[in-house]
């Protein structure tokens, strides 16, 4: 009898322990437990310890693609789903392979459990459908160069579609877009041709800028040379004008001195004209070429005038000799005027 009571006590103890173990639930941080009572939704248990009625209250288990079978604890943290490579047809009928990643977070555990049977599987299929719809409106070049636009459109479509599932799609990232091999070869050739064209354009642009720079330099040099020539001509003209003014001043002073030396005995203008005449004859005589010189009748009068002016200057010089100097020499005998010559003669040299 005592052995029976001992076994019964052990049995009761085991049952109580099982009952207590079934009644206590400890939920980790950032996870929740959907509780059902006799198969009906009873509430959501948050983080921490909880007591439930064993065999009456039971957590709801879910079966999602990519998650453990019969999962009971629902994670509220942001999660990601790696989508496999999917074929997508672009607007210009090119089939490309697209590899993407979607980031999502559960905001309402009740909707995530009861509104969709396979939450992660539904998100994957919805992402594939939305991706084909968005990229089907673009051609290949736009698809390869507008990943940010694709990501933004996918996130908007996914966020609106998964809102009733209690899920917030934070972002969608397209990782790889792989065109077919023949298209990739054609694109590489196109890019090579485009790079060559850009190189030629840049080279032509550089040559153009160099030509413009050279032309501007030549223009500025020409302007500088013209300015220098103008300044040189101005300075030369100023120098010539000053030389003529000084020559005129010197000539005026010489005429004044000649007039003072003549002391009213003759006209200084005749003397100057005679001097210029004689200089012209001297220049003509110094030439090495054979020439014919016309000697006018008045040449004898000119020569006689030369002798007269010489005598006058000699007399004036003698009279102006200071007393402390030696007495002047005897004046030269007076020269008779040269008689008038016949009509002009031709002298051959």
Automatic annotation (TrEMBL):
The lineage of its organism: Bacteria, Pseudomonadati, Acidobacteriota, Terriglobia, Terriglobales. It comes from the Bacteria. InterPro entries: Band7/mec-2_domain (IPR050710), Band_7 (IPR001107), Band_7/SPFH_dom_sf (IPR036013), Stomatin_HflK_fam (IPR001972). SMART domains: PHB. SUPFAM superfamilies: Band 7/SPFH domain. This is SPFH/Band 7/PHB domain protein. It holds the Pfam family Band_7. It is a single-pass membrane protein. It is found in: Membrane. Residues 315-349 are annotated as: Disordered. Residues 340-349 have a biased composition (Pro residues). PANTHER family: STOMATIN-LIKE PROTEIN 2, MITOCHONDRIAL. Residues 22-191 form the Band domain.
């Amino acid at each position: 009898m005592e052995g029976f009571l001992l076994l019964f006590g052990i049995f009761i103890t085991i049952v109580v322990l099982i009952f207590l173990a079934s009644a206590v639930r400890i939920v980790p941080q950032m996870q929740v437990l959907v509780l059902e009572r006799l198969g009906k939704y009873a509430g959501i248990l948050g983080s921490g310890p909880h007591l439930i009625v064993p065999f009456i209250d039971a957590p709801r288990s879910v079966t999602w693609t990519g998650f453990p079978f019969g999962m009971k604890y629902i994670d509220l943290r942001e999660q990601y789903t790696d989508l496999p490579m999917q074929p997508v047809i672009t607007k210009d009928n090119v089939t490309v392979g697209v590899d993407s990643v979607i980031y999502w977070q559960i905001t309402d555990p009740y909707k995530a459990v009861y509104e969709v049977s396979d939450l992660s599987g539904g998100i994957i299929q919805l992402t594939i459908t939305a991706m084909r719809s968005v990229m089907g409106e673009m051609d290949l070049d736009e698809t390869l160069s507008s990943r940010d636009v694709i990501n933004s459109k996918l996130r908007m479509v996914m966020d609106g579609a998964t809102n009733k599932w209690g899920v917030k799609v934070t972002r969608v990232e397209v990782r790889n877009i792989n065109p077919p091999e023949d298209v990739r070869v054609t694109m590489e050739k196109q890019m090579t041709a485009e790079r060559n064209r850009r190189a030629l354009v840049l080279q032509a642009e550089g040559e153009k800028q160099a030509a413009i720079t050279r032309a501007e330099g030549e223009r500025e040099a020409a302007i500088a040379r013209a300015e220098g020539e103008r300044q040189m001509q101005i300075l030369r003209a100023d120098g010539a004008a000053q030389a003529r003014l000084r020559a005129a001043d010197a000539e005026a002073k010489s005429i004044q001195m000649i007039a003072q030396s003549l002391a009213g005995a003759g006209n200084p203008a005749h003397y100057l004209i005679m001097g210029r005449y004689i200089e012209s004859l001297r220049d003509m005589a110094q030439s090495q070429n054979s020439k014919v010189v016309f000697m006018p009748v008045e040449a004898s009068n000119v020569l006689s005038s030369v002798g007269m002016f010489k005598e006058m200057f000699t007399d004036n010089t003698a009279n102006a000799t200071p007393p402390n100097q030696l007495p002047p020499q005897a004046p030269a005998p007076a020269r008779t005027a040269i008689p008038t010559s016949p009509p002009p003669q031709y002298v051959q040299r």
